[in-house]
Amino acid sequence: EAQVTQNPRYLITVTGKKLTVTCSQNMNHEYMSWYRQDPGLGLRQIYYSMNVEVTDKGDVPEGYKVSRKEKRNFPLILESPSPNQTSLYFCASSLAGDGIETQYFGPGTRLLVL
Amino acid sequence: AQSVTQPDIHITVSEGASLELRCNYSYGATPYLFWYVQSPGQGLQLLLKYFSGDTLVQGIKGFEAEFKRSQSSFNLRKPSVHWSDAAEYFCAVAGETDSWGKLQFGAGTQVVVTP
């Protein structure tokens, strides 16, 4: 089954404790992206990657890191989480294209930073 | 910079009634427009998209949307709502001159369906 998977689905952590949220897709998509969803703000893009070893900042990259060493994986790293990073996070992937390719979303990771 | 506005935060509709969700965008060039649905506890699913051609676009689950360039709008409609349509709906825009993968989302419209 074609899908985007994220782990963990739920995470409670404390301020300053490094964490990684994994994202993996099995559709051989070039493009991958991370979003955070907050009430009243919709989804905002954190980072995206056009292909292996090619990443760039989205709208809200502060406090986050990413890497793209393999085509199928795009982990999101919070080196020193803070309470304002409490949010619902989505990973998405799509084929490379000209903006019209459908993005497929993972099920989301709900993060609480205490 | 591109932006998307969904004026209605919350809409309540009776089952069987029609539904229209509003979306207005701001973008200087030809936009690529999308509607996504998020069911409770789920990720986002694409309902439909528009990039050129016929301005009335058909999507999944009986939804359609109409692109009106003069009004900078891309409203989503469904003639008869089912209880399973209760969800949050997001309009999104991507620009052909921007990074093509960068979707700008609206804040979302929560749809409640009553019996």
How would you describe this structure to a colleague?
Chain A is mainly beta. Chain A is built from no helices and 11 strands. In chain B, 0% of the residues lie in helices and 52% in strands. Chain B has no helices and 12 strands. Chain B has strands spanning 3-5, 10-14, 19-21, 24-26, 31-38, 44-50, 56-58, 64-68, 73-78, 87-95, 104-105, 109-114. In chain B, strands 2, 5, 6, 10, 11 and 12 form a 6-stranded mixed sheet that branches. In chain B, strands 3-9-8-7 form a 4-stranded antiparallel sheet, with no helix packed on it. Chain B has a two-stranded antiparallel ribbon with strand order 1-4. Chain B is globular and about 40 Å long.
Could you give a short description of this structure?
By secondary structure, chain A is mostly beta strands.
Question: How is this fold's topology laid out?
Answer:
The complex is a heterodimer of chains A (114) and B (115).
Chain A: E1 4-7, E2 10-13, E3 19-25, E4 31-38, E5 42-51, E6 54-57, E7 65-66, E8 76-78, E9 87-94, E10 104-105, E11 109-113
Parallel strand pairs in A: 2-11
Antiparallel strand pairs in A: 1-3, 3-8, 4-5, 4-9, 5-6, 7-8, 9-10, 9-11
Chain B: E1 3-5, E2 10-14, E3 19-21, E4 24-26, E5 31-38, E6 44-50, E7 56-58, E8 64-68, E9 73-78, E10 87-95, E11 104-105, E12 109-114
Parallel strand pairs in B: 2-12
Antiparallel strand pairs in B: 1-4, 3-9, 5-6, 5-10, 7-8, 8-9, 10-11, 10-12
